């Protein structure tokens, strides 16, 4: 298949596999797409090790990396930054999370120190080292999942000939990214897992394509099969950016207890909720969301306060769910799009990649015979 | 273009134009698609006149009709039925609507008697006469926008060789309709105008196609251009069911004040709200929705109580908006999907129809050249 994306990146098929597991990234790249590592939460040393491992697997084939980079970073002493964030989390919120874990028979979290760990992992002092690691590797693209990339990131991409990719959920955000000079846009519809807006892929993609001119646009949200990939190409996308589908792969590192819930879920079992990251993010509906929606429950805090508050709680919930704790299984959830309803079994990521590409080709052949 | 829909209905292109204006219905049919009249709110005599007028325009070409038919109808004295509904609307709600109109300088509505009129228009005593009128005409399909059709409707369709069509927003509802024996399914995604579920078209359509077997499935929601039509065919749909796009046509009878707001709106300016019909329906976001969301505002009532409550208020809002009342313009709204963001000007419905079909063919040609 030839599109603006395959030309730009030198890949066989315009299929991006976005996942936090290096095993998925390598498998997608080796099966004819391009894997992109979601590198949030790594130290620079960890990221370096992961990218080195991926390169050992892919034999020179292209892969990419996604780093969570705020457009403006705080300056000054990291300890002051942490203390100022911590001071913004009300005691009521700590108490609510503690009582929620207790209600579901889950060992209490040491929430405060875990919050520090989370804040540090996305804090200002780690961004430049992470970007340095990413650009020191042979990456075919660098994506930024958080707003507009800082100018330094765009300049580095231009200097190194590495396309900078931005995810957008509205035409307004797309225009802002185009004005900044990004090289590739991912137009992500509301049906996607993780942070999303309200506009559906079917509507958003052609709007962004029309704005973007010569800048290639990938479709994201609701794409887990070849038919959906063909539909995205019909909308004018130069390719697809798939995230959720890899959570049905063996290589994905999501907790087995959560993956079991995914296999049982229908397409109606997700919701957009700010209770995990402080921004609306699509995830599997669970008892967690019912608890936050109860009258008397506190309102979720903005990012990064909400993930500081709940990060360690989620670690405990996942551990307890894997150990068979029924309360934890009821709470268990993760970011996932509406395509979760199509998950039937866990499969190798390479098989998923090949099936999407084959089915896309079949759909294109079927369409050619309609006229 | 040849699909299961064009074969079933004997039409040139698999494009359904769904609208409450007979002028739109005739224009779509004459331009190579098939128009379907949304017949809600008509008396049997009015419906008969509208269908007769359409037939005079279309020179034997096929068209359809959509009637709002509840699966179970109340029996007994219509006056008792009305009185029992009226008794379920709290005085607090009447007072809220009155105060809302007063706040925006709109003449007060005689809400109670208008509610009776609305209830009567969808009440049990009118359903059978409406269906009799529909089947007495040369209709190519009869659709039911409200849940599963009653068995008598399906039997009449079978006897007359008229396909019965049902709209669904989830795989579960699709299965229920298939079990009832409907002839055509419309899988309508959350981005659609009017009553919708939460699942996006990109995800819902392939799910329903896989359930439906030999029953053709049309895609609805987010489809206003040829690219979106081609994408729907890629998803496995046998055609598309377009509703919102006709609200950008000259022939559509929506208030000019509302159509002016549509032309200025973006794809992010809609919301799903139960404040108009009692069920979640996508519509243009306006001051109306802010007022209902205010703390202290009453909760919307279930269908048909909410439309009984607000039907006359909406008539007054539209009249006042057309007369230039600024408060009414702020409140003005109507059912519309996320495609409203693509409206640039009002055009003849025939031009819209032809452009969708031409652009769909162009998209199919473009796709054929990708491989």
From TrEMBL, chains A, B:
Single GO molecular function: nitronate monooxygenase activity
CDD domains: NPD_like
SUPFAM superfamilies for this protein: Inosine monophosphate dehydrogenase (IMPDH) (SSF51412)
InterPro entries in the cross-refs: Aldolase_TIM (IPR013785), NMO (IPR004136)
Keyword match tRNA processing: no
A matching Pfam family: NMO
Keyword tags: Flavoprotein, FMN, Monooxygenase, Oxidoreductase
Gene3D superfamilies xref list: Aldolase class I (3.20.20.70)
PANTHER family xref list: 2-NITROPROPANE DIOXYGENASE, MONOOXYGENASE RV1533-RELATED
Full protein name: Nitronate monooxygenase
Species this protein is from: Saccharopolyspora elongata
Upper lineage: Bacteria, Bacillati, Actinomycetota, Actinomycetes, Pseudonocardiales
């Amino acid at each position: 298949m030839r599109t603006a994306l395959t030309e730009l990146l030198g890949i066989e098929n315009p299929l991006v596999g976005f996942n936090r597991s290096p095993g998925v990234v390598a498998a997608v790249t080796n099966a004819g797409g391009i894997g992109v590592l979601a590198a949030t939460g790594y130290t620079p040393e960890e990221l370096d090790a992961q990218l080195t491992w991926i390169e050992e697997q892919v034999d020179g084939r292209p892969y990419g990396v996604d780093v969570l980079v705020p457009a403006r970073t705080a300056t000054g002493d990291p300890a002051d930054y942490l203390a100022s964030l911590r001071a913004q989390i009300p005691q009521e919120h700590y108490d609510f999370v503690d009582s929620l874990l207790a209600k579901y028979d889950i060992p209490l979290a040491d929430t405060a120190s875990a919050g520090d760990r989370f804040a540090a992992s996305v804090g200002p002092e780690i961004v430049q080292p992470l970007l340095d690691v990413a650009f020191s590797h042979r990456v075919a693209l660098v994506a930024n999942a958080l707003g507009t990339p800082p100018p330094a990131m765009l300049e580095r991409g231009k200097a190194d000939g590495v396309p900078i990719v931005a995810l957008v959920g509205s035409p307004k955000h797309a225009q802002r990214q185009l004005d900044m000079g990004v090289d590739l846009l991912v137009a992500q519809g509301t049906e996607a897992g993780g942070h999303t807006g309200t506009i559906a892929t079917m509507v958003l993609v052609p709007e962004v394509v029309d704005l973007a001119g010569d800048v290639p646009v990938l479709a994201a949200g609701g794409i887990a099969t070849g038919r959906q990939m063909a539909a995205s190409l019909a909308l004018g996308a130069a390719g697809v950016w798939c995230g959720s589908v890899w959570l049905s792969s063996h290589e994905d590192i999501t907790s087995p207890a959560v993956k079991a819930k995914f296999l049982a879920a229908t397409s109606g079992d997700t919701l957009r909720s700010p209770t995990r990251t402080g921004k609306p993010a699509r995830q599997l509906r669970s008892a967690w969301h019912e608890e936050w929606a109860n009258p008397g429950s506190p309102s979720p805090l903005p990012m990064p306060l909400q993930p500081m508050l709940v990060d360690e709680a989620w670690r405990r919930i996942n551990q307890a769910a894997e150990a068979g704790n029924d309360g934890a299984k009821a709470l268990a959830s993760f970011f996932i799009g509406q395509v979760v309803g199509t998950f039937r079994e866990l499969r190798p990521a390479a098989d998923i990649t090949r099936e999407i590409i084959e089915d896309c080709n079949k759909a294109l052949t079927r369409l050619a015979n309609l006229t």
